[in-house]
Amino acid sequence: MIPKKNEIVTIEITDMGSGGEGIGRADGFTLFVKGAVVGDVIEAKVLKAKKTYGYAKIETIVRPSENRVEPVCPVAGRCGGCQLQSMSYPAQLAWKERKVKGCLERIGGVEFAEEGDAQGVGEVENLTDAAPGDVAKQDKPRFLAILGMEDCFAYRNKAQFPVGKDKNGKIVTGFYAGHSHAIIPSTSCAIQAPVNEVICKTVCEHMEQYRIAPYDEEIHTGLVRHILTRVGAATGEVLVCLIVNGKNFPKTEMLAERLKEAVEQQKLTLKGVCLNVNREKTNVILGTEVIPVWGDTYITDYIGDVSFRISPLSFYQVNPKQTKVLYEKALEFAGLTGDEIVWDLYCGIGTISLFLAKKAKQVYGVEIVPQAIEDAKKNAVRNEITNAEFFVGAAEDVLPAKYKESNGSMRADVIVVDPPRKGCDEALLQTVVNMEPKRVVYVSCDPATLARDVKYLEENGYKLVKAQPVDMFPFTEHVETVCLLSKLHEA
Length: 491
Prior knowledge:
By secondary structure, the protein is of the alpha/beta class. 23% of the residues lie in helices and 29% in strands. It has three domains: 8-63, CATH 2.40.50.140; 93-150 and 319-487, 3-Layer(aba) Sandwich (Rossmann fold), CATH 3.40.50.150; 158-310, CATH 2.40.50.1070.
């Protein structure tokens, strides 16, 4: 029986959806409930009911799950940033493990070795160094336990705060509510760097004093759209970038001095203040033009012993501690000895590329964002790395074109892919197969598209060896995974 809109039903949450919502059933009818935790018994109000499923919200928690905790953040239920603040961290990790493994099994058709199964290819510790023929078709891949964080708060090194006005006309910053552009006013965030709070307050006070209007996306007027910050976890350097609907900002030198003082009180160093110009009627946050206001337009930071220059437009993983964990795992899976030719696709500012270059003969990186490639080249120079070369363009265009130019002779020993959530284009995957690398290391931020691409590679001469989830984003639905695939021996 389909419940009616606004009807109150009592359900037990028995599962979770891919977006972190709880799933329960009322007389067999499936309801998705935001903020519900497996094991909760709740009274839920039906918001929408379709033929086979619907959406509801928590009215009363009749019996809380043993995994339910009190959210640290006061706006956790309204902000769209964190989906799992009501769930204990061990339970979050367990769910993310199930999510990744479930996608690889269901979508990818992967059958993992049971724990302790001697037939599992992951039991061969030196497999990354083995010849392709050492992987037999009957071997089962190994699913490794998720790598979580000891301290799962204040981990983000990048923040983007929309700017607007509250109902009383006061300038506020905060976060968008889920699936909307309604700003939930807040200057602090449990997963962001604490310095962001004083930065947002300082900018808002400056705007109020000089009557600088925030941007109104409905009528396309006003100046300040977002406040973007980057914080170097290892260096303590801070960059403040104002995304503006124009090219000028009143009293910029005074604002810079205020920000410098505020940041230094947090025992950090303000490296620069800049403007990013975005005059488009769009939901895209950043424009392409960056104008320096004070100091530099970038910060530097380290992952391990490799330093990186990070600008407002750079893609750089937001969790530096777990980035090191993730990249070290990718490096381990690559199994480099110093003689390999490596292609790093979707290389960003060269983060993985430069890690690999220290162990490889030659690394080629490909990235579509020109500014990121400029940063990658500068990062190679600053780290005195001479065996890394970078190309601008979409990976799905650049690699097939270069393979075609070589008349099919171009080869690689290892190919690393770290695509966006949509995964890899099929033409790119086919070129990867044609190049016959011994190993493919796939770094993924979306388990579903990862599973789809693993299936394609397995159907075209490769075998999944092992999968390692890494929790880069505590309290959110997102999870990273690094997979090793090895070329099968041709009979």
